[in-house]
Amino acid sequence: MLKFKNKKSFRQIYLIMILVVSCLLILSIYSDSQDKEADNSTTQNNNAPTTTNENGQPKYSLSKASSPWVIVNKKRPLPQNYVPELVNPNVPRTGSPTSENMMLSPVASSKLEELFKQASKDGINIRFASGYRSASTQAGLYNSYVTNNGQTNADKFSARPGHSEHQTGLAADIVSQTNYCYLEQCWAETKESQWLADNAHKFGFAVRYLQDKQNITGYDYEPWHLRYFGVQLATELYKSKLTAEEYFNLPPAPNYN
Ligand SMILES: [Zn+2]
Predict the structure, then answer these.
(1) Would you say 199 and 117 are in contact if contact means Cβ atoms under 8 Å apart?
(2) Cβ within 8 Å of residue 89, ≥6 positions away
(3) pTM, full prediction
(4) How remote is the CA of residue 112 from the centroid of ligand 1, in Å?
């Protein structure tokens, strides 16, 4: 056991020890907070939006008709009798609110309302021209296009029944209030179309049939056709300039099987 000459030197050593312990304590708290900061930055990176789950699979089904990410094309039909839940978006529209094609699935409807509000704030005057289409309505449309244009041509711009994205209730065709270039490719030159191309993803919509991607999507360029995927995927598609088929490495669908 240590022996101290007097009480004074004991007190000095005692004080030095307290000082050293305090210094160590302060140092350890400081390095702890540094670690936490580093942790936070890694967590933030790990939390960056990703479209895959922990197994590397898409977060939502690409096949289930009611999935927000369902991919419908000439090789991926919907069940003919599939009918989504439908509501009326409260936006300027071309048709009667009671008509079938003025309806959308609830999530697409509320996001379309948000999109229209922002468009209006930005001085963009657009109207909702077509939403849900049942397989039987699509059959009527497609058959009339075949009669008037021939099947080869009809297949370039109209889906066969069970193959239309409009049957999901997640697709919306948008036109100018003036009806200029109504559902025609020349609409791409309008400020309304350009606003949609630049902003639709912020509300979860993607321009689904991109220019020069007919060999993948199966359809000519349709600057008016928006598809609701949710903000995350729509933003990924917008940034990558990829079609949904390319993004998910799905086989191209230029033709029917
Ligand atoms: Zn469409």
Answers:
(1) no
(2) 102, 104, 108, 109, 110, 112, 113, 116, 128, 131
(3) 0.79
(4) 14
Asked if pLDDT for residue 44 goes beyond 50, the answer is no
**49 alpha carbon – ligand 1 mean position (Å):** 28
Report angle CA 108, 53, 105 to the nearest 5 degrees: 15
Ligand 1: distance of its center to the CA of 67 in Å? 18
- Other CB atoms within a 10 A radius of the CB of residue 228 amount to 29
Predicted confidence (pLDDT) per residue in 70-99, tens digit: 999 999 999 989 999 999 999 999 999 889
> Could you list the residue range(s) of the whole structural domain that residue 167 is in?
124-247
Mean pLDDT of the chain: 88
Query: In angstroms, what is the span from residue 143 Cα to ligand 1's centroid?
Result: 17
Other CB atoms within a 10 A radius of the CB of residue 199 amount to 16
Write down the residue that tokens 């000459």 correspond to. 5
Q: Does 6 score more than 90 pLDDT?
A: no
| Residue 198: inside a domain | yes
Indicate whether 199 belongs to any domain.
yes
Q: How far is the CA of 47 from the centre of ligand 1 (A)?
A: 34
In CATH, what number is assigned to the domain containing residue 177?
3.30.1380.10
Domain count, the chain: 1
Report the 10 Å Cβ neighbour count for 8: 8
Distance 58 CA to ligand 1 centre (A): 25
How many angstroms separate the alpha carbon of residue 219 from the centre of ligand 1? 10
